[in-house]
Amino acid sequence: MLHLRLIVPTDRTEKIVAMLDRAVGTTHLTVLPGAARRPPGDVVTCDVAREAAHEVLTALRERGLGDEGAITMEDLDLTLSRYAEQADREAPGEPADAVVWESMTEATSEESTLSGTFLAFLTVAVMLAACGVVVDSSILVVGAMVVGPEFGPLAGVSVALVQWRLRLALRSVLALLVGFPVAMLTTFAFSRLMNGIDLFHRSQFEGPRPVTSFIFSPDPLSFVVALLAGIAGVLSLTSQKSGALVGVAISVTTVPAAANTAVALSYDDRDQAFGSAEQLGVNLSGILLAGTLTLLVQKGYWRWRLRRTPGL
């Protein structure tokens, strides 16, 4: 269940409460007249089944509550109530299949902002992956893949394309276009430094690397893996399965490919640099394509479900 807390202008309270009362999947409706001070109005709360949340939020926004009042939503970890069980049964579909588009847009917007923290995480991840590719360590490479924050902007682009949100799309693309070059340039300098103090060795990088050679050798399977990861990543976000998102981070070689490109350039190894850059492009494009198509399918399903859902 999800919990909604609304600040409603007094002259609209009756209509909002009536709408919530007849909406499918809502329960625990509470009205606190005059409780809100800024903005002024009445406080209205209710619980709503996750399957019905998007329709309820859409109806509230259409009634102008997002502009002249306030809408706050939060997840409830536990709800012990016969009324909540009944509301969940009345809402069509399963909670795990539900997509709360407003929540999805908000989450990806926060994760796709170009910030110092984003640049720091991405740069550290690429530098960590650089250590992994030089010493041919799968542990370091996997660790770097988990640290990398790049899936946030990738998901942000997919959500923006499906929702036609130009500002979110530009913000997400900017994070990728600035983040990866900054991280790779920093890693280039880091590689030069490590080589200068004799911690990186050219012979290690250009010698046999059975564990990490796949990073600079893209093939059709690389694109298939990126497609599958994009699908799994979007499903993990829409269903709030954070554990699955860790698996997505480990399965796609975006950060290691960026790291290998930077290290290869520091050694003037153009073949590896080109192969790694190609791998990076294949993975980014595959995730974007799969993520966007997955969201389009989900959006189409929820539109069909909305036409069959009474009560709003």
UniProtKB/TrEMBL annotation:
It comes from Wenjunlia vitaminophila (Streptomyces vitaminophilus). The lineage of its organism: Bacteria, Bacillati, Actinomycetota, Actinomycetes, Kitasatosporales. The keyword Transmembrane helix applies. Keywords: Membrane, Transmembrane, Transmembrane helix. The keyword Transmembrane helix applies. Coiled coil: none annotated. This is DUF389 domain-containing protein. Pfam families: DUF389. PANTHER family: AT15442P-RELATED. InterPro entries: DUF389. The chain crosses the membrane at residues 114-135, 141-162, 174-194, 214-237, 244-267, 279-297.
